């Protein structure tokens, strides 16, 4: 499981011109699901990303989490994070979770996130999404479990 975290001032996801998810200050989380990932791993990933200290404290140090600042979390599925890019000029997706399984795990992970955090928005699994963001910093981290 991979989660690309981007600290944002604002972010939104559109599908067919309709905004389906939007947050102000917080984290845009692009989530890649691999074969073998499960709900337990999803729980661990959520705990890590909600407590990951990427926001400034009074001294300007990255010492606060999205939970500490009560920021938003915009969760977007992104199977391309599972690509194997080590060989050739074309990515391989052989390690990506099959779509039906990935959708079920994404939906469950989103449900768990909503139970753990108050401000949550999401993209639409499998849709052609247009993601817009104002990257704050820029600050971007790849979490892998």
UniProtKB/TrEMBL annotation:
A GO term from the CC aspect: cytoplasm
Localization annotation: Cytoplasm
Keyword vocabulary terms for this entry: Cytoplasm, Hydrolase, RNA-binding, tRNA-binding
Top-rank taxon, per record: Bacteria
InterPro entries: Daa-tRNA_deacyls_DTD, DTD-like_sf
Motif (Gly-cisPro motif, important for rejection of L-amino acids): 137-138
Any single Pfam family the record assigns to this protein: Tyr_Deacylase
One Gene Ontology term of the molecular function aspect: tRNA binding
Its EC number(s): 3.1.1.96, 3.1.1.-
Enzyme class name: hydrolase
Description of its domains: A Gly-cisPro motif from one monomer fits into the active site of the other monomer to allow specific chiral rejection of L-amino acids.
Family under the similarity heading: Belongs to the DTD family.
Quaternary structure, from the entry: Homodimer.
Function: An aminoacyl-tRNA editing enzyme that deacylates mischarged D-aminoacyl-tRNAs. Also deacylates mischarged glycyl-tRNA(Ala), protecting cells against glycine mischarging by AlaRS. Acts via tRNA-based rather than protein-based catalysis; rejects L-amino acids rather than detecting D-amino acids in the active site. By recycling D-aminoacyl-tRNA to D-amino acids and free tRNA molecules, this enzyme counteracts the toxicity associated with the formation of D-aminoacyl-tRNA entities in vivo and helps enforce protein L-homochirality.
Name this protein carries in UniProt: D-aminoacyl-tRNA deacylase
Gene: dtd
């Amino acid at each position: 499981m991979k989660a690309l975290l981007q600290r944002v001032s604002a972010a939104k996801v559109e599908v067919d011109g309709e905004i389906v998810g939007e947050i102000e200050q917080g984290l845009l989380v692009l989530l890649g699901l691999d074969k073998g990932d499960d709900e337990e791993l999803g729980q661990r990933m959520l705990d890590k990303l909600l407590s990951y200290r990427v926001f400034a404290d009074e001294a300007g140090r990255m010492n606060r989490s999205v939970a500490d600042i009560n920021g938003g979390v915009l969760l977007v599925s992104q199977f391309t994070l599972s690509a194997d890019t080590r060989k050739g000029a074309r990515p391989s997706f052989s390690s990506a979770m099959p779509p039906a399984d990935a959708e079920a795990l994404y939906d469950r992970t989103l449900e768990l996130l909503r139970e753990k955090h108050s401000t949550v928005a999401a993209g639409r699994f499998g849709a052609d999404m247009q993601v817009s963001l104002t990257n704050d910093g820029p600050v971007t981290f790849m979490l892998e479990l």
